[in-house]
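User: Please fill in residues for this 138-position structure.
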């Protein structure tokens, strides 16, 4: 089974960029009613990624619904940070936009892929070319 980690508010607070963490602290001080909002955003993003993973028949799911497959974590983190920054009214630079867009592409790919994520069981690519000659396929 692939490596899974607990993806929750505590993890995100420790992994988010320091400038966003500082802005988040100030935002919470100014808006104490928003105290649970980061947890809600994390929960929504976690559910999206777990649903995408569960759509792939080749991914054995961890039964702990607070865990996320390690390869999804950077993309899920980028999504959480993006949504949090939007909610706080912060401007998002091109790097942040690119990270969010890449995360969305990765997430959508999860829903449509049957790729085996575990590297040990992945197939190697094949470079055999199909050649059609004068007498048919060779």
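Assistant: Residues filled in for all 138 positions:
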């Amino acid at each position: 089974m692939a490596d899974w980690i607990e993806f929750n508010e505590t993890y995100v607070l420790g992994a988010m960029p320091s400038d966003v963490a500082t802005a988040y602290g100030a935002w919470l001080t100014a808006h104490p009613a928003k105290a649970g909002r980061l947890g809600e955003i994390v929960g929504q993003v976690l559910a999206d990624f777990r649903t995408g993973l569960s759509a792939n028949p080749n991914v054995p799911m961890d039964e702990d619904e607070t865990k996320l497959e390690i390869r999804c974590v950077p993309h899920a983190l980028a999504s959480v940070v993006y949504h949090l920054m939007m909610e706080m009214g912060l401007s998002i630079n091109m790097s942040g936009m690119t990270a969010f867009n890449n995360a969305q592409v990765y997430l959508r790919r999860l829903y449509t892929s049957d790729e085996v994520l575990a590297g040990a069981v992945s197939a190697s690519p094949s470079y055999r070319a199909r050649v059609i000659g004068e007498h048919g396929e060779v």
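For context: Strands lie at 4-6, 67-69, 132-133, 136-137.
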